[in-house]
Design goal:
Layout lengths: L2 E5 L2 H9 L3 H17 L4 H18 L1 H14 L3 H11 L8 E5 L10 E7 L5 H4 L4 E6 L5 E6 L3 E7 L4 E6 L11 H11 L3 H10 L16 E6 L5 E6 L4 E5 L6 E4 L8 H4 L11 H17 L5 H8 L35 H6 L3 H10 L2 E8 L4 E4 L10 E4 L9 H5 L27 H26 L2
Parallel strand pairs: 1-4
Antiparallel strand pairs: 2-3, 2-11, 3-12, 4-5, 5-6, 7-8, 8-9, 9-10, 12-13, 13-14
Helix pairs in contact: 1-4, 2-5, 2-15, 3-4, 3-5, 4-5, 7-8, 13-15
């Protein structure tokens, strides 16, 4: 069911990822170049930064450098152009995602779950599709399922050993150069089987952090990891600081949103609702997630997870310390629900609050819920808001060569060979894995259109 990119080596993987999808990749790189120009980036400084980053990759993560070289060959460009594009795309505006993990004793069935409500602007689907998962299978490293666009940006969500992950973008001002969050995540997925191993990847490598509170923060992220043994952790980091919280310290559950809750924000330079009002919704979403996890602790299963991920409830308790009070019957705070919708978009328009309306439309949208269930060798995904779309179960036991795949077949309630029906509607050209030359052409056109809207949104958020 999933798009699988299999290769004998790293260079071959990059080449295979780009071959046949040149138009889409070139549109993405053009979008990145336009963004750099719009920000007034000095070309010489940008080139020097790219060279430093490629030198760091050669030392710390040469496999990724080889992949970029392979992609560059497929596109007919220089590797440094791919590297510059990847760094730029990783620093686009984004404030979404409300995630959690539940492991024994919090789960009633003894399973390990990692849930990701994936919130980003709707135009992001043009890059990754409505079913944004693919399998990375390179000889010599662990196979794993990724979300994103291969090579340029991809986030590993489950590997063949059952290590599972989800992320939240977050602002920080303690910045510096190092491996990007995407590269750290991929390095962990390719080489580690345990949560402690994943944590060591963050501790043992320099961490790239782009300074920003409400902009340029996709590259900065909190990361949840859980492994097949039932260990789970949240990693929060800035360039110079890191904090790790274990699920065992919280009864088997952890939640994460778009701010630092365990890492001291005076060290990371992280945002709060006073410093950056746009982050107010994150505090509300995280408080509501913890409320639900505490309520269901000990009874978490697939049914209760569905309840949590589709929740539209409100919890403003963590905002009181910032002097923000709102009754539950008042107008919702923007971006304040776990299953995210632009609730106040038309209210803003009626009040002629055009900037506020456009900002909420850009940030308050759950594109997918992605649920990792490693014991059943399954990733469940909703092709849209989880409150409106049913889960599509994706069997990954065979493509990831999971040792317990035969046992898992007896526990699932769907056929592993299940395939979705043929796509015929026009909207379905944006769905992976049925990408074609025509669909990529349409996506590249759409990306150029929405790129202009994204540039407008970035200037509005930045207050330019």
């Amino acid at each position: 069911m999933l798009w699988t990119i299999a290769a004998k080596d790293e260079h071959g993987y990059g080449y295979a990822a780009g071959r046949g999808r040149e138009r889409l990749y070139r549109s993405a790189l053009d979008h990145a170049a336009a963004s750099l120009k719009r920000r007034g980036a000095d070309a010489a400084r940008a080139a020097a930064k790219t060279r430093r980053h490629m030198a760091l990759l050669a030392e710390r993560y040469p496999a990724h450098l080889e992949r970029m070289s392979g992609l560059a060959r497929a596109l007919g460009v220089e590797p440094n152009e791919v590297a510059t594009g990847a760094l730029t795309l990783a620093s686009f505006v984004g404030t979404g995602c409300t995630n959690f993990t539940a492991v024994p004793p919090a789960t009633s069935d003894g399973k390990v779950y990692v849930s990701w409500n994936f919130d980003l602007p709707p135009w992001f689907r043009l890059l990754v599709g409505r079913m944004p998962l693919y399998v990375r299978d390179i000889a010599g490293s662990k196979p794993y399922v990724c979300m994103g666009l291969p090579v340029l940006f991809g986030i590993g969500v489950m590997n063949g050993d059952g290590l599972s992950s989800c992320v939240n973008s977050v602002g920080a001002m303690d910045s510096g150069e190092g491996l990007t969050f995407f590269e750290l995540n991929n390095l962990a997925m390719e080489t580690q089987s345990t949560v402690d191993g994943a944590v060591s990847v963050w501790r043992d490598n320099p961490r790239e952090v782009v300074p920003g509170l409400a902009i340029a923060i996709i590259m900065n992220a909190n990361n949840i990891f859980a492994d097949a043994s039932g260990d789970a952790a949240v990693i929060e980091h800035s360039h110079n600081h890191i904090a790790v919280a274990k699920a065992s310290e919280h009864g088997g559950v952890l939640a994460s949103a778009n701010h630092h809750q365990f890492l001291d924000r005076s060290l990371s330079g992280g945002a709060d609702p006073i410093i950056e009002p746009l982050i107010t919704g994150s505090y509300a979403r995280l408080a509501r997630m913890w409320e639900l996890l505490e309520r269901f602790k000990g009874s978490v299963d697939l049914g209760t997870i569905r309840t949590i991920t589709t929740d539209h409830g409100l919890n403003y308790s963590t905002l009181a310390e910032f002097g923000i009070e709102r009754s539950y019957y008042d107008e919702r705070i923007d971006d304040a629900t776990i299953c995210c919708h632009p609730w106040n978009f038309f209210r803003h328009l009626r009040r002629l609050e055009i900037v506020e309306a456009m900002v909420e439309l850009n940030v308050a949208k759950t594109l997918n819920n992605i649920l990792m269930d490693p014991a059943r060798c399954t990733i469940y995904i909703t092709p849209g808001n989880p409150c409106r779309k049913q889960y599509v179960p994706v069997w990954v036991g065979d493509s990831l060569r999971m040792e317990w795949a035969d046992k898992a077949r007896g526990e699932i309630d769907y056929a592993p060979e299940w395939r979705p029906g043929a796509r015929s509607r026009r909207i379905d050209v944006f769905r992976r894995p049925y990408a074609s030359e025509v669909s990529d052409r349409l996506r590249s056109i759409g990306l150029n259109i929405f790129g202009g809207l994204d540039r407008l949104m970035e200037s509005l958020i930045a207050g330019d």
